[in-house]
Amino acid sequence: xGPHAGHKPNTAIVKITAVEAGGLRLHIVPPPPDLAPYxxxxxxxxxxxxHVFEDCVPPxxxxxxxxxxxxxxxxxxxxxxxxxxxxxxxxxxxxxVRLRIGEGEYWGLGLxxxxxxxFLGIPASDYANRFRDIAAEPAAEPFRLLLEKLLHSPMPVxxxxxxxxxxxxxxxxxxxxxxxxxxxxxxALVSDLSRSVANLAREVGTSTRTLERFCCRNFGFNPQLxxxxxxxxxxxxxxxxxxxxxxxxxxxxxxxxxxxxxxxxREFMGMTPSDYAAMDxxxxxxxxxxxxxxxxxxxxxxxxxxxxxxxxxxxxx
Length: 317
Known about the structure:
Oligomer: single chain
Structural class: alpha+beta
Largest sheet: 9 strands, antiparallel
CATH class of the largest domain: Mainly Beta
Helix content: 25-40%
Number of helices: 10
Strand content: 15-25%
Distance between the termini: 40 Å
CATH topology of the largest domain: Jelly Rolls
CATH architecture of the largest domain: Sandwich
Shape: globular
């Protein structure tokens, strides 16, 4: 598929990782270094004609997505399946997303917590466990234009990644007084050393009460739930990397026993580990394979944030 009329093809060297499974093909592109503190990956999923894929996608950080298909439905947690708008903002989640996609192209970019704060400037808690039409969020107007262009103007993956990069770099600068605190908290969450909210607060140098408000605004959830999500996803990622493993061997060291893990599994995924293991996971497994090939982390939530660039001067803010 060639670039659309009037589009200047990308000439930069872009590292694209592509993984295919049946009629599903996922392309992922790491962001350039200046955007790496804000964006996990750029990506495009292609579903071939005659195919429909269903999956139960584990919790993750926020994403911006564009897709169009006769079959495109999703639901978060226990809500009913509903059609997905062509361009959406999907917030951070602590519940699985049930997804059903048919023939088409689906573009997206993953927003890390610092990226959500910088590019949108709205509380992450406003979109916790929610997705909605991006046209309904005034702060996301530049992204609506970007996603509509990706959706309606077919182009190679490299050109789409270049367009996303160009758009992000061209957005007005928003000063982030708490940027270092967001990065520090994010790193502490990803680390498996934080076993309690009190311990996390000590690591980032704040009180537990302040940390509660800070995490809800910038990460979408309270710190206790965020720590539990990380613990759970470290365990689930071990299984996704090697589905032949027994669950008992995948458990994160923070779990007291398997019953403790099963309770978390029911809360985050809405089912038991055995029910999940019996299902096919075409979308999640393809994403795990592609992520490990490109970045070594199996899931977006396990991605350790890159150091942020220096803040712009006050004159450019």
